[in-house]
Amino acid sequence: HDLKGLLAYSTISHLVLITALAGIGSNGAILAAIFHIVNHAVFKASLFMAAGIIDHECGTRDLRRINGLIRFMPWTSVLAIAAAAAMAGVPLLNGFLSKEMFFAEALTVDHPLLAWLVPTGAVLAGLLGVAYSTRFIHDTFFHGEPVGLDRHPHEPPLWMRVPVDLLVLVCVVVGLMPMQTFGPLLTVAVPAVSGAPMPDVSIALWHGFNLPLAMSGVAFVGGIGLYFRLQRERGLHGRDPQRGPSGQRGFERIMSGLGKLAGVVTNALQHGRLPIYTATLLAAAGLALLPWLLRLELPAASGEVDAGLAAGALLVAGAGLVCVFVQRRIALLLASGIAGLGSVLVFLSRGAPDLAFTQLAVDGVFAVVVALALGRLLRPGRNVLPHGRPALALVGAVLAGLGLLLLALGMTAAPFDGALSDYFGAQSLVAAHGRNVVNVIIVDFRGLDTLGEIAVVLLAALAAGGILRRMGRAGR
User: Fold this and answer.
1) Cβ proximity of 156 and 76 under 8 Å
2) Are residues 143 and 14 part of one domain?
3) Domain with 135 in it
4) 197 and 69 share a domain?
5) Do 176 and 84 contact (CB within 8 A), yes or no?
6) For residue 328, which phi and psi values (nearest 5 degrees)?
7) How far is CA 112 from its chain centroid?
8) Nearest alpha-carbon partner for 42 in 87, 5, 9
9) Statement: the pTM of the whole predicted model exceeds 0.70
10) pLDDT tens digit string along 130-150?
């Protein structure tokens, strides 16, 4: 029953209208969205100012008490009625034009399901807009006498009303001469938003008898009828807002349900078991790539087999198989290191000795650091991993490997564009004074990216150090 509350909720409905136009996405829809943003700003600003005047002069905004104000505040009532009529989309006012454009764009949707759903939703939204606009007008300025006001209502001071006068004048002038008033603004704004030229449309008050006009008529008549039927059968003034159906309570229940659902999902997924996290990520990635992998064109098989490449691949596969079944942590660490050595052989066989040496150094440092950490963190007798499901882990690993293999084959089957390779190869020594192209790319050409990655690792290390220090003080 709050006058400003009614206007606030109506703003949400108009924002939905604007969002729907943006979702349609055509140049005409973008034009209608921008035009309605401006129109809505004008008539809604005047309505909020009028509500403030009523609150100031009557001492309340309760729609059950501020009735019949047209006899006490005639000029303010006329201004507020005109602004509310613009909100409802009454002809000769600016809101009518953008509402007609909304209806016209809703009819352009060609999706099989949305082709009827969007126009139906547009008419329903327009109908409800007329209904709450009618309530604003009828309950505030008509519908009997004021009830229990703290003050005797009267017209506000002149300069309190002047802003409303000017805004309502804009509603009328734009409604009569849209292209002469807002045309230059739309000509600049629409291309800036859509990235396309201004559509060749004429915003005018009359385009003849057409389907958007019929949709406006249905919304107008239906909205007025809906309001008076609710007023007669439900008694809106006598209705307790804390009882019966309520959009606000429905929204709050939906949000509460979403919170509970989020809790259930979080408890089910965030259980602290890393293997299940990894399996979930791999399964999600596989399902996302599955449609693409099924249509993948693989390159023709080559009869030549590189001995170094084959040895490296077998070493990686064998070490990975050991990692699946081994139970001791140190043995697992050694097996992962052997897999890294297989990668070194692959890099050497493909003519990338720098990458091979880098991989060898990284694997060596990783093995030493993790071995030292395990020696300090694990208590005696805890070197054996908990009993798991090696068969399930093996199936997951094989599927993940096959997916990556198909992905790599699909990438190699695509046409190769050597522009970047040629550029970096030519500029590595000239611009960066380095012969190792990979190192030059990491350190020079994308040095800022590398710096950002180092910063991320450093911040993570600082956070982990703080947590470990606090846990050490707590004796854990």
Assistant:
1) yes
2) yes
3) 3-239
4) yes
5) no
6) -85, 140
7) 25
8) 87
9) no
10) 999 999 999 888 877 877 777
